[in-house]
Design a protein that fits this description.
heterodimer; A: mainly alpha; 75% helix; elongated; B: mainly alpha; two-stranded antiparallel sheet; 5 helices; 56% helix; 4% strand; ion transport (chain A); transport (chain A); Na+/H+ antiporter subunit A (chain A); ND/Mrp_TM (chain A)
């Protein structure tokens, strides 16, 4: 399984080579792997439904880190969404993006990389593995929503999506560590078998839940999802309908067997899920942009899924798995329909489209199939899921949730109808839309996805087998629960009545849409989640400005004083309480130390007297080179070499910067004795402290540590005669990798600071062009 | 120090006689030091070769990726000081390697060398000896090469931001009021 995930990422990295020749071929090549994943998943269906297919790769045994994967029923369903729909959407993208579109190569590679990360996420059986892929999908989403970064709307939406999901992700990482440490394992299957208990574990679980809620756009975190509609439509269809937003729901589904009976798990899920379902459904009724309408529909359905997966009820979980599959299979084709409508007419505004159903009957039928599944009309997969969902809560007598879901389903029916009406109906007073012909390459994937919902809906046992296997871990409360199977006909029952009511009232709401919208506009909206997000971000920015204003006084002497005082207070106390002077302090180790030391002392004294900055830099350099000389004398040629090189580079950097500064240190016209004295005392004390500390610390070591001898003994084993090299690239290679990473971040940060201020100045001068922006971004 | 006929006041003993570095955009004839330019012509490739030697010899003697990378970086610094360069990209010779690309490549190489053992069922960062054309090479050399490239990238980035970046700023300040500004 790891090989499959890595293959996605590697092919994605190589994809630019293909897209250089042909954009369309790149999407075609990208679609191969997700399709292969689907075939692989279905070929392993037997194992997945039986014991499950497990795979472990230990990659850092010293730290107990491993990649753990497991294929089970939930995994197979998600593979259908990630692999199957992924292949269809990539094929669709080949015709969606223009032949010479400059965005196409980036999107092809990113979509495939995302598919790989998502595959890893749904197959992960190890919480840390899951977290890794979780964040990778967030980053892929950021890049895909942001696109080239040329439009403000894209940038805003991308940043919002990233901030919300990564904030949740960080909370989740904290939670994962707490849960993993209290349970003693990071394996999801082992956690479910023996769930940790206690207050600490509860905190961890709630933190994990925060991650799941943000990723699946639950109230009050949901506004990022409609905002993410700034992405191209295939991206929205794949990431923000079919796969990525399901991650939170899937995580809840994976952990529910362990925690579903705990109040801090099911209560927030049920409440927030239901609120999300209602808020999303209500907002969808008033959207005039077809894509945003679908986005709010997705928010609503995610709330529905959240309630079902968190229920911990056997029938509820059967419904959850069915709805998970159904939602992917109806929402992805609906987005593809919007993409086609947008492409052939140039608009996706409800008010601008009219008579499209008559001009594009084939497309209208496909859209109707998908929307009917969303509304829960019999013979379609959505109906099976909704029926089971009603049964779950009606059977338990949980009327709050049952009625809540009924209201939510009614809204779903209403916005499904609104979608079809908005896209295809002939509206009086609106000019007939004249579409250009749609490419077969766009229509075929849409049809395949829409038809699969019908086929699976007409043959319930197919999905039932998966759902039964997934729900098998939940104990059936009675015979009815134990015997529940997905079926088109359960007899005349309350759930069927619920479905009928939802359909009738839903269509009624749609018929009265003018009044409903008028009501929506009359209502006051004191609380808006989007405004809440903006206020939070604004508040953080103001706070940052406030802190910076307080802490960054802009005076170098103040910064230095703070640093020196800290050095004096913290290690100083330790030195005074714990340090002992060594018995004998030799005057010098070798004769060569004397002249070198003399140069250092002389340079240091001279430094305090010079008035020209350049001279000061040269004197600092002299001190540095002399220290390098001391290293040579003491037999550390590696250290000396590095010291000389770094010293040289530092001096060059100093000289570069000095060009911007006055040649002389400013001399105060009215020297204030008190301040000068205080500076001198502080500097003198700090210097003395460092000298004393050096002597005291040199006495603390009694014998060479055992590890040094080990390093020397084992360096030939590492293939190095030079023990320093062996330490750097072998024994402590992790440190080296960490250090160069820090170096890269620091260099990139410095460069962007220096170059960004330059960009700002240009912008104010009126020269801020897109080219200037591109220059900054590269 | 050359003897000057005029008497320099004591406070001015360390005043520079000329510019510290050459302005990159258009070196005025009188501001060029032919000696430095001519020396750089053959010092530059020599230092680069020496830096590669340091990189490889690191396993047996003082050297390694860090020292080698810094040495190569200093070769570029020397060239910049001698000839200047208006754009960061031009410093990296006509390959037009952008410093961030170089840094990224270095880190990528280091990461690949770190994770490659996982493909062979070994823990991460394991090193192995490989016989290559009769020469024993340790696989951790790849990590060192990554460090080498990354350090060169860092130095070039320094030249780009603090070197030519400040130069451009100075040029812009000089051109302030000019409608066109300094087009890159």
């Amino acid at each position: 399984m790891l090989a499959l995930v890595v293959a996605h990422l590697v092919v994605a990295a190589l994809l630019p080579l293909v897209s250089r020749r042909s954009r369309r071929a790149a999407f075609g090549a990208a679609a191969v792997l997700p399709a292969a994943t689907l075939v692989w998943g279905l070929a392993n269906l037997g194992v997945a439904l039986g014991p499950g297919l497990s795979e472990t790769h230990v990659w850092a045994s010293a730290l107990d880190l491993e990649f753990g994967f497991r294929l089970d029923a939930l995994g197979v369903v998600m593979i259908v969404l990630v692999g199957g729909l992924g292949a269809l959407i990539l094929a669709y993208s080949a015709w969606y993006f223009g032949r010479d579109s400059r965005d196409a190569p980036r999107n092809a590679a990113l979509l495939l990389a995302f598919a790989g990360a998502m595959l890893g996420l749904v197959l992960a059986d190890d919480l840390l593995t899951l977290y890794l892929f979780w964040e990778l999908t967030s980053i892929a989403s950021f890049l895909l929503v942001g696109q080239g970064g040329l439009h403000r709307a894209n940038r805003r939406a991308a940043v919002q999506a990233l901030l919300v999901t990564v904030m949740g992700g960080l909370a989740m990482l904290l939670g994962i560590v707490i849960v993993g440490e209290t349970a003693g394992t990071y394996r999801i299957s082992a956690l479910v078998a023996a769930p940790p208990a206690g207050g600490l574990a509860a905190t961890g679980i709630v933190l994990v839940l925060v991650g799941a809620l943000t990723k699946s756009a639950q109230f009050p975190f949901h506004p990022w999802l409609p905002g993410a509609m700034a992405a191209p439509t295939p991206v929205s269809a794949y990431l923000h309908a079919a796969s990525m937003v399901k991650a939170g729901v899937v995580l809840v589904g994976r952990l529910s067997p362990a925690f579903a009976d705990r109040g801090y798990w099911w209560l927030p899920i049920a409440v927030l899920g239901l609120v999300t379902m209602l808020v999303g459904g209500w907002r969808a009724l008033h959207e005039t942009d077809l894509k945003r309408l679908l986005a709010f529909g997705t928010v609503s359905q995610l709330g529905f899924l959240m309630v079902l997966f968190g229920s911990g009820d056997r029938i509820g979980e059967i419904a959850a798995l069915t709805m998970l599959l159904a939602h992917g299979l109806f929402k992805a084709p609906l987005f593809m329909v919007v993409g086609i409508v947008d492409k052939v007419t140039g608009t996706r505004e409800v008010g601008a489209l009219s008579g499209l159903g008559r001009r594009l009957p084939g497309l209208a039928v496909a859209a109707t199939l998908a929307a009917a599944s969303m509304a829960g009309i019999p013979l379609l997969l959505g109906f099976l899921g909704k029926e089971a969902a009603f049964e779950a809560f009606v059977h338990d007598g949980n009327w709050t949730l049952a009625i809540g879901l009924l209201v939510g389903s009614t809204l779903t029916v209403a916005y499904s109808a609104r979608f079809l009406w908005g896209a295809f109906a002939t509206k009086p007073g609106v000019e007939q839309t004249e579409p250009t012909p749609a490419a077969p390459g766009l229509l075929a994937p849409t049809w395949i996805a829409a038809l699969s919902g019908l086929v699976l809906g007409c043959v319930p046992p197919l999905v039932d087998a998966l759902a039964q296997d997934y729900a098998a871990v939940y104990r059936a409360a009675d015979a009815v629960e134990a015997d529940y199977h997905l079926a088109l006909w359960h007899g005349l029952s309350l759930p069927l009545l619920f479905s009928a009511v939802a359909l009738l009232v839903g269509f009624g709401l749609h018929a009265q849409r003018a009044r409903v919208t008028a009501l929506h506009e009359r209502l006051h909206h004191p609380l808006s989640a989007q405004r809440g997000y903006e206020r939070t971000i604004g508040g953080i920015e103001r706070f940052a400005v406030w802190v910076t204003g307080r802490v960054q006084a802009g005076s170098l002497p103040v910064y230095l004083a703070v640093l020196l005082l800290t050095v004096l207070v913290l290690p100083g106390i330790a030195l005074v309480t714990g340090g002992t002077l060594p018995a004998t302090v030799p005057a010098f180790g070798s004769l060569m130390q004397l002249p070198l030391g003399l140069v250092i002392v002389a340079s240091a004294f001279a430094l305090t007297r010079v008035r020209r900055r350049f001279t000061a830099v040269l004197l600092v350099g002299a001190i540095g080179y002399s220290i390098g000389g001391l290293f040579v004398v003491d037999g550390g040629p590696d250290l000396a070499l590095a010291q000389f090189l770094v010293e040289t580079l530092t001096m060059v950097a100093f000289v570069f910067v000095l060009r911007r500064l006055p040649a002389h240190f400013e001399s105060d016209p009215r020297p204030r004795r008190g301040i000068e004295l205080r500076k001198a005392v502080l500097a003198g004390v700090a210097g003395t402290f460092v000298a004393v500390a050096g002597v005291v610390l040199s006495g603390a070591r009694q014998a060479p540590p055992a590890v040094s001898a080990e390093f020397v003994a084992r360096s030939p084993e590492a293939g190095a005669d030079n023990v320093i090299a062996a330490i750097l690239v072998d024994f402590r290679a992790l440190d080296t990798v960490g250090e160069i990473t820090v170096l890269l971040i620091a260099a990139a940060g410095t460069a962007s600071l220096v170059l960004a201020t330059r960009f700002d100045r240009r912008d104010r001068a009126g020269g801020g062009s897109p080219e200037a922006e591109e220059e900054m971004l590269r | 120090m050359t003897a000057t006929p005029e008497k320099i006041p004591f406070e001015q003993w360390d005043a520079p006689e000329g510019e510290w570095t050459l302005p990159g955009r258009c070196p005025v004839r009188t501001n060029r030091t032919l000696l430095l330019e001519a020396a750089t012509r053959f010092l530059f490739p020599t230092v680069l070769v020496f830096s590669v030697y340091l990189l490889i010899v690191g396993h047996y003697a003082p050297g390694g990726g860090f020292s080698g990378g810094l040495t190569a970086g200093l070769a570029f610094v020397l060239r910049y000081i001698a000839g200047g360069g208006s754009e960061g990209a031009e410093i990296g010779s006509r390959l037009r390697l952008r410093p961030p690309t170089l840094m990224g490549t270095g880190l990528l190489l280091a990461m690949v060398s770190a994770f490659a053992p996982v493909a062979f069922g070994q823990p991460v960062l394991t090193s192995a000896k490989v016989s290559f054309l009769g020469v024993e090479v340790v696989s951790s050399l790849l990590l060192d090469v990554g460090v080498y490239l990354l350090i060169i990238g860092v130095v070039l980035d320094l030249l780009r931001s603090l070197g030519s970046g400040i130069e451009r700023d100075a040029a812009d300040a000089a051109d302030a009021g000019d409608a066109e500004g300094a087009a890159p």
